[in-house]
Structure formats: C-alpha cells, structure tokens
Amino acid sequence: MTESLLLQNVRPLEGDRADVLVIDGVVKRVGAGLEAPGIRVVDGRNGILLPGLVDAHTHLDKTLWGRSWHRHSAGPTIQSRIADERRVRKALGYSPEEQSTNQVRQAITMGTTHIRTHVDIDTEIGLANLEGVLATRDRFREAIHLQVVAFPQSGLLVRPGTEALMAEAISMGADLVGGIDPSSMDRDPVRHLDTIFAIADRAGVGIDIHLHEPGMLGAFALELIAERTTALGMQGRVTVSHAFCLGMVDEAYLEHLTGLLIDNRIAIMTHGPGDIAFPPVRRLYEDGVTLGCGSDGIRDSWGPYGNADMLERAMLLAFRSGFRRDEDLELVLDIATGGGAQVMGLADYGIAPSCRADFTVVAGETRVEAIMNRASRIAVVQGGRVVAADGECLV
Length: 395
Fold this sequence. Notes:
InterPro entries: Amidohydro_3, Metal-dep_hydrolase_composite, Metal_Hydrolase, Metallo-hydrolase_Enzymes
Domain Amidohydrolase: 40-387
CATH topology of the largest domain: TIM Barrel
Shape: globular
Strand order of the largest sheet: 3-2-1-4-13-14-15-16
Protein name: Cytosine/adenosine deaminase-related metal-dependent hydrolase
Number of strands: 16
Helix content: 25-40%
GO molecular function, one term: hydrolase activity, acting on carbon-nitrogen (but not peptide) bonds, in cyclic amidines
Organism: Halomonas stenophila
C-alpha cells in the first residue's frame, strides 16, 4: 500500500528548506511553498531529510531483542559461537518470527527502510528460521523492504543435505544465496563456491557470502569469487560481507583485489568490527567499489551489541576508521544510505522526483551532527506512509 502526503519544512541533505510532495508513494516534486489540497500534511520541523537508512547486513532470525537480558558466554571462535547459539536456541525456544518482528519494529523506529538479512539454513533447524522471517517480511511488507539471504551458517559441504535445503529456501522466497568461509568452514573452497554459484545461477538470483577468513586465505577466496562472477556473468550481483582480508594485505595486493572488485562490480559490506582489521572504506569508496554497512548481529547469542540504529553504525564505522573530518563522516553516512541501496540493487532509491518515497527526517543542523548525536527521528516514511515518528513505531 502506497500513500500520498505533503512533507513540509525539511532540509534535503541539510540543504535549503523545502517541501516534498508524494503521490501514490512516489516523490513528485521537491521545492519551497508546495501546496496539495486534500493531501495529508506532515510537518518535518526543520529536520534534515535523508533517504531511508539501509541495513545491508543483519541476522533477524538470531536476535534476542525484546527478551530479558541474555548473559553471554560464547567463546572467541566462530565455531564456538555457532555451538553456543545452538545451545541457547534450544534453551530459550524462541520464535524466529517473533524475534525478527521485534528487530524489524526497532529498525523502523530508528529510520531504516531497507534491510538485507541472512537467515540460517542447516540440517538441524531445516527451514524453520526462514519460514519465520518470511512471515515477518510478509507482515511488514508495506512498512519496510526486506531482502532475505539463505545462509549456511554451519557450513555447506560438512553437513550433507544443506545444499538441497539452500535450493529449497530460494524456491520458498529467499532472495539470495549465502555462503561462509569456504576454506576454513568446508575445507574445500572450490567446491563450496562452485555449489553456491550453481544454486544462484540456476535460480537467477544473487549471492552474498560471509568471508571472515584473514589475510592471504581470505584474499585467495576473493580471487575465486571473482573468477566465478566473471565466468557466470554475475557482475553486479555478488556481495562479500566482512572481507576482513582487505584490511590485512599489502598495498600492491590490495590494488589487485580492488581491481577485481571493480571489474566484476562485487560489493563489499562492513559493519566496522571492533577487534579485527576490516576493509579500508575511504580507499575503496574513492576507488569506486560499491560499499554498504550493516548492524550484523543485534543482541544475539554471539554478543550484546547493536540496537538497529544505522546512524550509530555509521558513527562506529567512522570511529573505527579514524575519521574526524566532516567530509569523512558524510562518506560513511553515504555508505549507510546510497551505498547500501546499491548493494541491495534498489533502482528507485533517493529523495529526488520519481524516486520511491522512502526516507527519514532527523533532527540536527548538519548530517554529521545527526550522526554524532544519533539524532531523534522526527518521521520515517515508507512508500509515502508514515511508519514511525518521534521514537514510536506506528506499524
């Protein structure tokens, strides 16, 4: 359902004050003193108009948001965290639909209009998590745009039967094929990547692969990913999430890998991790690599961090990158908006005429001040419909 409205008294990207006329969910005009008799009027209170925030990487099925506090005890390795998550899931018996709903409503409240979520698929839980998240996607279809990645968290080849479940997940409505650490998780990077690319190619969908592998091991995987992207003509449809290796290799090798990313239009997602090297965002941004950022896990068994606020995530990414200048902080906000939109392949994203009316109005004098203050969200609009205002989710 799309709606019409006249959003008055806003400053697009902190520019001059203007009004925005939305007809049937699409921006028709942006200018001063607009009038539209009979159409709902919303006062933007001199706030900054931003395109909707984009969380390009999270895990809706894992979140414990909205539950009583969980005492974290997972170990330091990915495998130990996977094992601990299985224990917690059994102990708490939580519903993926209920938990994903909790995080989605929080994200809407904080101004996010688009989410790409990874959802666990394996031989123990089967497709139950996917079913829950798909139900949430359907319930909030008019309030937020969700893309779903079928994610083999526990490995693909090491759990026979997972490949068939992944293919079934796509047929059920997952939008992309996921993968994870093809060398360290499955011990067979060629076969792992051949498998996920084959599933995606047959279904005509994209890929978003978790790559935590460090240094040269991760760089080797990136080269294999680029090879398959070229061979199958999947340029512009592949994302590598985390890609810590890009922050670990030397300058010459980084230049080589950057060239592969650009030539194949492979996107990179980072969440600005706190304890490991990560992609050099300014360098990649200036070179023309598509960059998005995301919350990753939010208050789940893996860790206590996160609140679905992409302004805060932009601040954390800037902090971890050592950014201080306003122009650099504006860069990370662009990654959390337009960059994420490119990662998700959103063709009608923005605040110009003919764009879909998905945007967020935030308090503040400048965009950078809004990031630093994690400014209040005056209004959140999805398809011309006000879905949140002043810290309250309205859906």
